[in-house]
Amino acid sequence: MRQWFNNNWVILAVFFLVVVAPYLYHGESVFQPLVNGLLIGGVYALIAVGLSMIHGVMKIVNFAQGEFLTIGMYFSFIFYTYMPKGSLPYWLLVPVAILMFLFGVVVFRTSIRQVIGKGDSSYILLTLGLSILIQNVLQLIFGPNYRSLEISNDLKYGSFFLFDDRIILSHPRLIAFAGALVFVVLVTYFLSRTDLGRAMRATAESTTVAQTLGINVNLVFTIAFSLGTVFAGISGLLMTPMFLISPQVGTTFSTIAMCAMVLGGLGNLKGAMIGGIILGLVESLSSNYWTLDIAPVVINTVLMAVLVFRPYGLFGKGARRA
After folding, report:
1. Are 130 and 67 within 8 A, CB to CB?
2. CA distance 44 to 33
3. Which of 94, 177, 187, 202 has the most other CB atoms within 10 Å of its CB?
4. 280 lies in which domain range?
5. Which DSSP state fits 2?
6. What is the CA radius of gyration of the chain?
């Protein structure tokens, strides 16, 4: 039975049938929830890819990834106050990306670097503490109240209509999905076609071998962590037109990103991307058919069911043996 489930695509097909079946049984349209899930799943994929890059290269899990997303949202909020009212927040992509990269460098150099190779408990406690610290600092500076960008109604409520208005594509969701897709394509090209990307892949395989080949492992670690931070910050920027901003908003997204990374396979960028899209679809379908509160239950049920048959995730290769 276990061998039969080793086919990843069979597993995916089974879970889609399980989630979609209630719609088909009750004669409801499944296309709109599928489209919504696909669009938000693209942003989840971007967060998970950043998290997976950090784990793949450095072999640590960043439990503060959601808080990095929150910082990206607050950077967007601060910059947007100096822009004309009704402007597109997506023009802030470059300054937010630069600030998040610098923030990632500072965090890595001052804290993360000290715990690499010193056991799982060290980085778990450090990143969890960092998560709590960021939440409290943000609450101290901005207060506990929710904030939002004063974007135009055309962006906030604008939509494309397809198939005689049976499918609605929200402008913010569509732009967020397109932006996430572009970044995922760029990082794939970066890792496979550039010298620095190849150095990161070599370091992910073995830091010892990478050092013997003359690769500056500390520099690779710094860039990998900072790029993961950038992906979280850009995800925050893409989400600001759709979500309210608060110091605790990143907690939910951090959980989803963790689930997507584990679902796809630790350190596997393709798996993280597909895992994010799957969780977006599961969340949309379950919350639309039942309630929004049941979505986390369904997501974790899907994750646990996959891990029963694929302990290393859908695309994980398992532990290596000499």
Report:
1. yes
2. 16
3. 177
4. 34-309
5. T
6. 20
